[in-house]
Each structure stands twice: as structure tokens, then as C-alpha cells.
Write a structure and sequence with these properties.
Distance between the termini: 48 Å
Oligomer: single chain
Order of helices and strands: HHHEHHEHE
Strand content: 5-15%
Structural class: alpha+beta
Strand order of the largest sheet: 2-1-3
Length: 125
């Protein structure tokens, strides 16, 4: 175990270019891709790596149009938002407009499916 820790310590001292050369050498020697090893070694060596892209967890469901089925879309908007008839009609007529904001991906996909089934169009942002 001490040998592995010593090896990790030595690899941490490599520059990004040295780590890339090491990856190429390992690929040639063993016939495998070391792309993950380079990605792991680069932040340790460089110190200032770009932050990993975060997966979006909250979505806004934006109604972009009624698709010519205004009444059906209004009914779905009412069911989803619990708005009154007048408010739901105003929302649909003022598209593009947010139906719900800050919802989970699953809920956003569910809302999108309902609006699309009613004939409307939706964007998730």
C-alpha cells in the first residue's frame, strides 16, 4: 500500500504535458485508453482546472404556443397550475410564458408531455 501512495505522490508532481506523455506511453504499452487518468492527473498537477459541468436540477417549463388547440392547452394549464379559467387563458395567450419554475426534471418532463399531448409546445430551460 505504501508503494501505491508513493507512486500517487510522484504522479501528482507531473506537469500537464508530462501527464499527457505518460498517458500516451501507457496507451501504446498496454493498448488501452488512459483518457480518464489524464483527466484525473491534470487537476492534481495543474492546480487550477476548470470546474466540472454541473447537471441542471431545476427547470423552468415555458409554454411557447398553443399549437392551434387553445382550449385543450388552457385545460391542461389549469390542471397543472390550479389557476382559474381567466388566469390560465391569459397565460396561454401571452405565450411564451412560464407555466412553472424551479421544478425537478421529472416534473418538468411530465408537464411537457401533458401540454404536448394537448397540442401545445413547451421549452424546458
Amino acid at each position: 500500500m505504501a508503494d501505491i501512495e508513493k507512486l500517487v505522490e510522484e504522479l501528482s508532481k507531473l506537469t500537464v504535458l508530462e501527464a499527457a506523455d505518460l498517458a500516451k506511453a501507457l496507451e501504446e504499452k498496454w493498448g488501452v485508453s488512459a483518457a480518464a487518468a489524464v483527466a484525473v492527473a491534470a487537476p492534481a498537477a495543474g492546480g487550477a482546472a476548470a470546474p466540472a459541468a454541473e447537471e441542471q436540477t431545476e427547470f423552468d417549463v415555458i409554454l411557447t404556443g398553443d399549437g392551434g388547440n387553445k382550449i385543450a392547452v388552457i385545460k391542461e394549464v389549469r390542471a397543472i397550475t390550479a389557476l382559474g379559467l381567466t388566469e390560465a387563458k391569459a397565460l396561454v395567450e401571452s405565450a411564451p410564458k412560464a407555466i412553472k419554475e424551479g421544478v425537478s426534471k421529472a416534473e418538468a418532463e411530465d408537464i411537457k408531455a401533458k401540454i404536448v399531448a394537448a397540442g401545445g409546445t413547451v421549452d424546458l430551460k
